[in-house]
Design brief:
The termini are far apart. The chain has 336 residues and is of the alpha/beta class. The N terminus is likely disordered. Strands 1-2-3-4-5-6-7-8-9 form a 9-stranded mixed beta sheet. It is globular, with a radius of gyration of 20 Å. It is built from 14 helices and 9 strands. The longest helix is centred in the middle third of the chain and has 17 residues. The structure holds iron/sulfur cluster (SF4) and zinc ion. The site of iron/sulfur cluster (SF4) has 11 residues, from helix 1. The site of zinc ion has 7 residues, from helix 14.
Length: 336
């Protein structure tokens, strides 16, 4: 059996999201994300995190997992990167049994996918499971991705309602690096209760913390306001404003060249642009700026070369002269 070979044909690459029974799938270019249904994040059940609503359902069985992989990968060009997650943590045995996980790993052994990412909470990462992933996926780059959000304990606790022990996270990161696996940390832009300036500073500090402690890549998640979350409630009651796209552009503009070449952005409105997840509010911009920004992000995510990206950033700032760009400057530098 050899699945997802490069010369396969029949379907095009993923460019949208799709519900496949037992999962949801999102793809953009040569990147595919499969979220397997699960009973939900154990931390969510305890009331964390205020911006998250990953939902919950039934854990997938071995047969369903294989059907989903078949459905997503067969007859399509091989994704360069495959991200696998559940409604919370894929390495949490209560969300996905080890038997199902092993079945998935066996399946992936027979594909040409070179880069496989597992999205999971750091408390679910043990040396034993890291070795298992590594041994089951020989010749592939394996990465662990996790929601980090902020390096500021106050922001984590009081703004995002997220419990995280940064010392323990550092140890886990060392453990991942020890087995030559990659670390991807997700950073949140737009923490509630902070001024726009503080939101920018908080995200920048988190990016610096992540790279300073060995992350290979940072993914910046600008705040998305999802129905059913505490963030949604704050927004509905006028206590929270949507993040501006221009704040994300500001943040990217503050990264060092090396960081710029390793940083990705996610959930920036690409799903809505493709007609999906229309009930979720991504960052905002006016009708004049939005198409320009979407084109910027598309090119930004297609090319990780730092100098090309720096040129793109320069270009996008000069392409529109609009009050929504100016209002972010005012909030940052005008004492608002
Ligand atoms: S953000 Fe992550 S840790 Fe927090 S509730 Fe959602 S899935 Fe769980
Ligand atoms: Zn505008």
């Amino acid at each position: 059996m050899n699945i997802g070979k490069k010369n396969s044909s029949g379907h095009g690459p993923w460019h949208s999201s799709r519900k496949i029974s037992g999962s949801s799938v999102w793809g953009r270019g040569d990147f595919v994300h499969i979220c397997f249904e699960s009973c939900g994040c154990r931390f969510r059940k305890q009331g964390y995190c205020m911006m998250c609503d990953y939902g919950a359902g039934d854990n997938v069985t071995e047969t369903e997992a294989v059907e989903i992989l078949d459905h997503v990968l067969r007859g399509r060009p091989v994704p360069r990167r495959l991200l696998l997650g559940t409604c919370g943590s894929i390495l949490d045995g209560s969300e996905m049994s080890r038997t199902v996980l092993m079945k998935i790993l066996q399946y992936l052994q027979n594909t040409d996918i070179e880069y496989i990412i597992f999205e999971t909470h750091y408390t679910t990462v043990s040396r034993g499971i890291l070795y298992e992933l590594k041994n089951m996926l020989p010749g592939k780059t394996v990465a662990i991705e996790r929601g980090f959000e902020s390096s500021n304990p106050n922001v984590l606790k009081h703004s995002l309602h997220k419990v995280m022990d940064l010392g323990q996270l550092k140890q886990v990161m060392h453990g991942i690096a020890d087995v030559q696996m990659e670390i991807i940390l997700n950073v949140f832009l737009g923490a509630p209760g902070l001024s726009v300036k503080e939101q920018l500073e908080d995200a920048l500090e988190a990016v610096n913390w992540a790279y300073g402690h060995g992350a290979h890549e940072v993914v910046i998640f600008p705040a998305n306001i999802k129905p059913g979350t505490k963030l949604w409630e704050l927004y509905q009651t006028g206590k929270y404003e949507r993040v501006s796209h221009w704040l994300l552009i500001k943040l990217l503009g503050k990264l060092t060249e090396e960081q710029l070449g390793r940083t990705a952005v996610s959930w920036y409105g690409d799903r809505q642009d493709a007609g999906n997840d229309l009930d979720i509010l991504p960052p905002e911009a006016c009708d004049q700026c939005r198409p320009v920004l979407m084109e910027f992000y598309r090119r930004f995510m297609n090319d990780f070369d730092a100098s090309s990206r720096a040129a793109l950033l320069k270009e996008v700032k000069s392409q529109v002269s609009c009050s929504c760009q100016g209002s972010v400057d005012e909030k940052l530098y005008g004492g608002v």
